[in-house]
Q: What sequence folds into this?
């Protein structure tokens, strides 16, 4: 109900001080790069598909792809030129008791939609990362945290990737070996922000210069927002990949959800708009709402929904 309500709020916002009420479409930030998705649904971070992979393919990835499609197997690192950046990947975890977990994480062969881990396998082929981190949230199953469970699930089901056309002609045995050698499960974080922080500790050990975040279209906008807050948007000694942060959406979302269900609230920035219309800032209100205990928040949301229905003439 909360995401639907925010979409309603966005659709009622005036776009200028002169034009009255105009409708706007909620959009989802799925950009490849490090644009800041401030205010995306989800708790605020602590303050301080043809080829559905990230599009910045480097020479080493082409070499590796050729080898796995039948050429000779080499060292596999593939960093062939001075402009090549050492690449890492974070695969964001999915709560292990989420409805439709297998479809979200592995994908749906019947529709050829890649899940998070199959998308990561494709990136292993095309981007030649030196490290893939499987992140963890606040769940566990069979005595395993999300990161361990998800990594093990991928490796146990690796040959099933042949069900996806994008892996046609690929030596999945070799690709699986690379994934085993280069992937690691992060098992101590409890949420997305900690996942990015703990993942950074692992990435730093591998001297990563370029980072790709992988998650579902309905989760990735917030991952990007949080990453920009945690890492910053300029290269630093602590986060050398911050200026080369990319995102790669998988093909599957949470059950019953679509990318357009994600509401993004940007900070006001237009110079031709009356700034008084943006006080208080909607993004700030939404972030405060997520700091309220869930039971209390639900009451506030229901009250707001009734007010919106009155404004819309349906209440």
A:
């Amino acid at each position: 109900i909360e995401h639907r309500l925010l979409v309603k709020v966005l659709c009622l916002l005036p776009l200028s001080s002169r034009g009255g009420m105009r409708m706007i479409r909620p959009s989802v930030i799925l950009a490849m790069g490090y644009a800041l998705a401030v205010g995306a649904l989800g708790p605020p971070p602590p303050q301080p598909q043809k080829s559905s992979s990230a599009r910045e393919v480097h020479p080493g990835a082409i070499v590796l792809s050729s080898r796995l499609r039948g050429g000779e197997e080499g060292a596999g690192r593939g960093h062939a030129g001075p402009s090549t950046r050492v690449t890492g990947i974070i695969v964001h975890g999915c709560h292990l008791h989420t409805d439709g977990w297998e479809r979200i994480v592995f994908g749906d062969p019947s529709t050829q939609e890649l899940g998070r881990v199959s998308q990561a396998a494709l990136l292993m082929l095309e981007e030649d990362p030196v490290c893939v981190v499987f992140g963890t949230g606040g769940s566990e199953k069979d005595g395993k945290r999300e990161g361990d469970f998800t990594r093990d699930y991928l490796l146990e089901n690796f040959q099933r990737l042949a069900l996806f056309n994008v892996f046609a002609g690929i030596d999945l045995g070799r690709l699986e070996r690379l994934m085993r050698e280069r992937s690691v499960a992060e098992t101590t974080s409890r949420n997305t922000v900690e996942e990015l922080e703990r993942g950074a500790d692992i990435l730093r050990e591998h001297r990563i210069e370029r980072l790709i975040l992988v998650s579902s279209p309905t989760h990735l906008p917030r991952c990007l927002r949080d990453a920009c807050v945690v890492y910053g948007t300029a290269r630093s000694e602590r986060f050398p990949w911050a200026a080369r942060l990319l995102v790669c959406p998988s093909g599957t979302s949470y059950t019953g959800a679509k990318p357009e269900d994600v509401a993004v609230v940007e900070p006001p920035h237009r110079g031709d708009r009356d700034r008084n219309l943006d006080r208080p800032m909607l993004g700030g209100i939404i972030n405060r709402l997520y700091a309220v205990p869930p039971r209390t928040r639900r009451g506030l949301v229901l009250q707001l929904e009734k007010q919106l229905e009155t404004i819309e003439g349906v209440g």
In short: The CA atoms of residues 136 and 264 lie 24 Å apart. The chain has two domains: 2-26+263-312, 59-257. The chain has ten helices and nine strands. The radius of gyration is 21 Å.
